[in-house]
Amino acid sequence: MNDQAQELRNLIRHRANSAEKPTRILAVTSGKGGVGKSNFTLNFALTLQKKGFKVLVFDADIGLANIDVLMGISPKYNLYHLLKKEKTIWDIIHKGYNDLQFIAGGSGFNDLIRLSEEQLDYFQEQIGQLNGHADFIIFDTGAGLSKETLKFIVAAQETIVVTTPEPTSITDAYAIIKMVNSMDYDIRFRLVVNRVTDWREGRQTAEKISMVAKQFLNLDIPTIGYVLDDAAVSKAVKKQVPFTVAFPSSGASKSIYDLTDDFIANQRPADMSSGAVKGFLNRMIKLLK
Q1: In a domain, 3, yes or no
Q2: Where does the AAA domain start and stop, copy by copy (predicted)?
Q3: Would you say residue 195 lies in a domain?
């Protein structure tokens, strides 16, 4: 696994010195709200960046966008201003903790399904400029399977489903996987189990979802890792500081560090593509038209 991680880093380092830079596009979703999806996304992105990768977080949670709130930042511009052609893609990219780049959510995502041809062309041209801009572009989608969330799940190269050990969360996580699979989309799902009391509970939760998905959907859904239930997380939310920044030695932070190491180790060099943004846009535009 360490050899794979080093190979991935070497590939990114090599392409960073050339015109071709690899990018991987991830979507993070959940079957229901309140499982800590956005908090996971933010701290996962920060840890990837700490490991030497350049990351851009795209807050795609319609109505409940809160990546900026978790950092105590009030961005002036978001996707709405881009779709109205008032701003460029670079104008709406903001910086948070440790210079993490992010695009704030807003009502603009509702407008994605009502774009004129001219607006669609502008959206495509602007987002296309992100090609090679970052090693990872992470879309924090809404919970549940709305039309907008489905677009990001289908267009991304990989979707991380965040759940907790609660029975309703497990059921809803499986439900979203089942619904997307029934639409005949070839999606690569992976699991993260949040708020676990220990490693054993995390493994048992993941196995419940994985076994049912294998038995009834014939899907292999690997688990990235588990995040400990930790009072430091709620304290960090109240402080509006990411918990890996506010409490770097906490159990939850250590869980994120371990999880991120495993994620990097299991990324294949072939997963990183200089044409990832173009592929994402092609799939997205097909769904929008």
Answers
A1: no
A2: 24-186
A3: yes
- Residue 2 forms part of a structural domain: no
Alpha-carbon span 181 to 202, nearest angstrom? 24
Q: Nearest Cα to 162, choosing from 137, 146, 144?
A: 144
pLDDT tens track for 85-138: 899 999 999 999 999 999 997 655 555 556 677 877 888 899 889 988 999 999
Structural domain total, the chain? 1
**Is 139 among the domain residues?**
yes
CATH of the domain at 187: 3.40.50.300
176-228 pLDDT, tens digit per residue, is 999 999 988 888 999 999 999 999 999 999 999 999 999 999 999 999 999 99
- Tell if the pTM clears 0.85, that is, is over it: yes
